[in-house]
Amino acid sequence: MRRRMRGTAVAAIALTSLMVSACAKDSGGSTTSTGSTGGCEFAEAPTAPVTSSTDAVSGDKVDGSALKIGLAYDIGGRGDASFNDLAAAGFDKAIADMGVKKENTRELSAAPNEDESAKQTRLRQLASEGFNPIVGVGFAYTESLRVVAPEFPNVQFGLVDSVVDGVSNVTPLVFAEQEGAFLAGVVAAYQSKKCHVGFIGGVDIPLIQKFEAGYYQGAKTAAPKISLDKKYITPAGDFTGFQDPPKGQEAAKGLIDKGADVVYPAAGVSGIGVFAAVKQSGVLAIGCDADQYNQPALAANRDVIVASSLKRVDVAVYDFFHAAAKNDLASLPKVFDLRSNGMGYATSGGKIDAKLQGILEGYKQQIIEGKIEVASTV
């Protein structure tokens, strides 16, 4: 998930209770009453057949054997079990599918709270060494690309989670994070025994607030009387909130102590600590950005992860390299959302039954059709 972070995004230090009104329009279609299962009382819910999604764009085979492609990670880098790992997956798939030679690839990582000049140096290094196209993973590269991209007008840059206005060789790879988070909120409502759920944000920034807004709207749409609490690990400007598992664990414990029995973190590497606290407390969690049930770094605690919202940074990164190789960047979606398979959900672990999957598909279809508009702010 992640701040951009496509996250990732994935709020203040104080704990607050928050009620969010749903923005659902009348569906006009068939619904099913789910009633109450000892936790929440549920609203009438739409249902739809469960469909499968594809991993990345399908299309012509592209010969990328002559390309040199680069990836500049956000903090956390490859191995964060979240946002950066998704970017890495898209990068790896592009290399394999397009036949890019290993020696013609380069990955560079960032450090927490590094100076802006470090980001510019990283991008210049890739571009000056002949890498093209290049992806900056996360909105932290916005200002750096505003400076560096015009210096290399023949290099195509992709930027996850942000836009650089007026710079033609920077392609934005942005997401409707709130749509995937809405579905996470629906899952949380149905999985909660206390009708009380929580949200943990890594850093209090607009990107992560999109996750919060969608999650709360989804939970309130499914169960209008649900209780909702939140906590952000660090304020805006302090990006260590995305890379501090102990603080993630502390934040989760605080929400659980207040009564939340399903916790959803949009907090990057800090989510590792969240899942540890959830397991210790015997409650449940929902993953963010990646299918976190299947992330090796989370294997010890994965049994508490009942579902994950998917921010398909892997799809966006792969599609960017594929389109750049074809000289067809205009074919990319303006926003990676549920409709374009840029957002989604995963139910690995077998804890979500067929009935709830049908409900999730019903809500997903209503969002795609515009019958539900998911807000990006609370």
From TrEMBL:
Residues 1-24 form the signal peptide. It is found in: Cell membrane. SUPFAM superfamilies: Periplasmic binding protein-like I. Residues 75-328 form the ABC transporter substrate-binding protein PnrA-like domain. GO terms for cellular component: plasma membrane. It comes from the Bacteria. It is a lipid-anchor. Keywords: Cell membrane, Lipoprotein, Membrane, Signal. The keyword Zinc does not apply. The keyword Glycoprotein does not apply. Belongs to the BMP lipoprotein family. This is Basic membrane protein A. It comes from Lentzea flaviverrucosa. The lineage of its organism: Bacteria, Bacillati, Actinomycetota, Actinomycetes, Pseudonocardiales.
